[in-house]
């Protein structure tokens, strides 16, 4: 549901990578992300395309997987082209969100917006909450 930051590259390079390299692979190519940001990325995708039913469905699925402590990878290129805004830079709703029509400028604006997208509220780790409930952290929390 996302794409990497432009630390050492440019929007032009990322666009070429996404369209000329990834975009030409078979649609059933499996995509594995380097970090588990799927829920956060899909929350951003929903901000970009609030009417996109595929984003809504994938976000609900990803939240359930996250709740069950299961991975959300892999996906396929075919799926990503339905809900990943970074692969949808020529789609009218994505362009409307960015106020741009040039695909590279749409990508640049999306990445900037994603970089500034607020972090979701952090949920406590379920295992840590159980440890607190069972008093396992008590000895570490007592003042000496």
From TrEMBL:
Alphabetical list of InterPro entries matching this protein: HAGH_C, RibonucZ/Hydroxyglut_hydro
Pfam families noted in UniProt: HAGH_C
Keywords assigned: Hydrolase, Metal-binding, Zinc
GO molecular-function terms, A-Z: hydroxyacylglutathione hydrolase activity; metal ion binding
Limits of the Hydroxyacylglutathione hydrolase C-terminal domain: 36-117
Protein name: HAGHL protein
């Amino acid at each position: 549901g996302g794409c990497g930051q432009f630390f050492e590259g440019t929007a032009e390079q990322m666009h070429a990578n996404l369209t000329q390299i990834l975009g030409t692979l078979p649609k059933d190519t499996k995509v594995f992300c380097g970090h588990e940001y799927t829920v956060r990325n899909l929350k951003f995708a929903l901000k970009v395309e609030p009417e996109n039913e595929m984003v809504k469905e994938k976000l609900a699925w990803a939240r359930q997987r996250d709740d069950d402590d299961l991975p959300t990878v892999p996906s396929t290129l075919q799926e990503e082209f339905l809900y990943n805004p970074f692969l949808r830079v020529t789609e009218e709703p994505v362009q409307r969100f960015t106020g741009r029509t040039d695909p590279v400028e749409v990508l640049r604006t999306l990445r900037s917006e994603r970089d500034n997208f607020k972090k979701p509220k952090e949920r406590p780790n379920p295992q840590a909450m159980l440890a607190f409930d069972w008093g396992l952290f008590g000895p570490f929390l007592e003042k000496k």
